[in-house]
Each structure stands twice: as C-alpha cells, then as structure tokens.
Design a protein that fits this description.
Helix content: 25-40%
Bound molecules: (5S)-5-amino-3-OXO-hexanoic acid, zinc ion
Order of helices and strands: EEHEEEHHEHEEHEHEHEHEHEEEHEH
Number of helices: 11
Shape: globular
Structural class: alpha/beta
Number of strands: 16
Strand order of the largest sheet: 2-3-6-7-10-11-12-13
Radius of gyration: 18 Å
Largest sheet: 8 strands, parallel, barrel
Strand content: 15-25%
C-alpha cells in the first residue's frame, strides 16, 4: 500500500469502560462531552469518536436524548468528523446499539468485528470509594462480560446502516477479527476503502506489543491489500507508545480518555485535548503531518459533514 502522507488523529472522548471515580477529567455531562470534544478538535483531532453518558451519574448510555444533548453543539463549533459508537453498551443487543447511528446518521460509526471477553474488572481493586453507586458493580461485573458481535449482528448492523452511507471504524481486537472482516467484506457488506482500528491491550483481546502491531498490520496487508486504511489504539499505558509506532509505520492514531486516562506513566490526563496535543507534538516532531478534517474525509472517502442528521 502507498504510504499515507497525512496522519489522522481520532480522539475517543469518554467511552464505556472508565467511570467517574477513576478520573475527574472523564467527561459525562453533555456540556463536558461537548466542550472536551471541541477542544480535542482544536488540538488536532480530525475525528471525534463519541459515546453518550447519563448526565446525572455518568453511567453509560445509548439513549438518543443523551446524544442529542451534545451532537449539535459539537457540529456547530467544529468541522471535525463525528463518529458515533455502536459498541456503547457491552451488554445490550446490536439493535439497541445501532439506534444512535441510525438516528443521527453520522459520517462514521464504530463496528465491532467479533464476540469476545471484554473485561476491566481488575481496575475495581484500585478504588476504595466510588463517586456513584453503579460504578463498583459495573466494573467488577465486567469479569463476566461477553461482548456479543456475532456474524449475524455484524450483518444486521451493516444492513441497517447501509442507507446512511456511514463509514465504519472496524474495531479489531485480535487477529481473528481481521478474518471476520475479510469474510464480511467478501460477502459485499463493506465498501473499500475500509477503515480498521487495530486495538491492543483490552483484557480479552491481543496484548499491547509492537510485535502484535506488526503482525496485525501484515495480516491486514495480506487480506485487504490497497483496500484499507488503518489506525491504532493502545489501551491504558500503551496508548502513546503504540500511537507513535503506528505513525512511523504510516498509520493513523487514536487517543482519548475512552482508551486511557493517563498523560504519562502514573499521571492522569487533564483532558482529551491534552492527550491530542501530546501525540500531535510527538508525531510532528517525528516528521508526520496531521490531517485536517477535510483531509480525513478524503483519505477515508466520507460522505461529508453536511449529510448528517443533527
Ligand atoms: N473502547 C474501545 C476499546 C466502540 O465504541 O464500538 C473500543 C471501542 C468500541 O471504541
Ligand atoms: Zn468507543
């Protein structure tokens, strides 16, 4: 594949893993999600990957109203590409999870490419007190999570979303997910260029080692040739190192408090924008040029910010 000349930074603003106790910086009210998203875009993120949260206690949400409370504000204040998660709950059905994307018809949405254990229960041991009642049980019970994304789920999500011309961020947590994606692509579900997010360091997925990044990339090259674009997300302390490595391999990168609460070893980030600014500084120092939102639209062949429904 020809080396991409611009580096797309995605920022994943709040997610569904971390809870308010874990960091005061984690946004969960619509005001804070909107403000941090706008600031992340100003810092250099051209794609904003968004989940919703309950405004009163930070619980994860796939409710339309919770998205409606921040999406228009983000659109008004930035030109960044909006990417809505369809993985916003680790326990709800795919039908519930795709509703925000079918309702708001963003330029992009996530699509998780396989069923898996998906756990963050070891985090529970770090906290004696919790800000909200739901948090402890939510984190501990992830030990029993099966994040369900069967072939039928994937097909139904793709078919439901097809009329919206949304580009998927294909979330691949392990090498088998690339083969799942290849199978689905061969059945005609997805249009090239597909966009793969290689994910490292989720408990239940492949570990955050550079060897694994090279292995995933080489496998994707073999399976998809010129028909794919790619990005890397390292969970927790692996975030900045793997993003830096990906940038040097010609890939795109994802940061944000969804994936890591840290700005450096043992130190909490103050905001999403702080992580974006840091990775931008690193990759620019190393010779990369960060893509604008319109350049990201061109690289990923997106439908355009005027064709969304919010
Ligand atoms: N939380 C990330 C590891 C989704 O939103 O669909 C993966 C993710 C999934 O972003
Ligand atoms: Zn997400």
């Amino acid at each position: 594949m020809a080396k991409q000349t611009k580096t797309i930074i995605t920022c994943a603003i709040t997610g569904a893993i971390h809870t308010p106790t874990m960091s005061d910086a984690l946004p969960y009210t619509p005001d804070d999600i909107a403000q941090q998203a706008v600031e992340a875009a100003e810092a250099g993120a051209s794609i904003l990957h968004l989940h919703a949260r309950r405004a009163h206690d930070g619980g994860v949400s796939v409710n339309i109203d919770d998205f409606a409370a921040f999406l228009p504000r983000i659109k008004q204040a930035t030109d960044a590409v909006v990417n809505i998660s369809t993985g916003g709950s680790l326990t709800l059905s795919i039908a519930d999870r795709v509703k925000p994307a079918t309702t708001f018809s963003p330029e992009m949405c996530s699509l998780n490419m396989g069923s898996m254990n998906f756990s963050f229960h070891p985090l529970a041991k770090r906290y004696d007190e919790w800000k909200f009642d739901w948090e402890k049980d939510y984190v501990e019970s992830s030990e029993g999570n099966i994040f369900r994304n069967t072939f039928r789920d994937i097909r139904e999500a793709a078919e439901t979303l097809a009329p919206h011309d949304i580009k998927f961020e294909h979330e691949c947590y392990d090498v088998g997910h690339l083969y799942n994606l290849k199978f689905c692509m061969d059945t005609g579900l997805f249009k090239a260029p597909i966009f793969i997010q290689f994910i490292f360091g989720i408990l239940g997925g492949i570990g955050p080692e550079i060897d694994n990044l090279i292995f995933m990339k080489r496998t994707a090259d073999r399976l998809f040739g010129d028909n794919y674009r790619w990005s890397v997300l390292g969970a927790g302390g692996a975030q900045m190192g793997l993003a830096t490595a990906a940038s040097q391999m010609g890939g795109n990168i994802r940061v944000g408090l969804e994936d890591s609460l840290l700005i450096s070893r043992g130190k909490l980030a103050e905001s999403n924008a702080q992580q974006v600014a840091k990775i931008r500084r690193i990759v620019e120092d190393l010779g990369c040029t960060v893509a604008t939102p319109d350049e990201a639209r061109e690289i990923l062949d997106l439908k355009g910010g005027d064709k969304v429904n919010f």
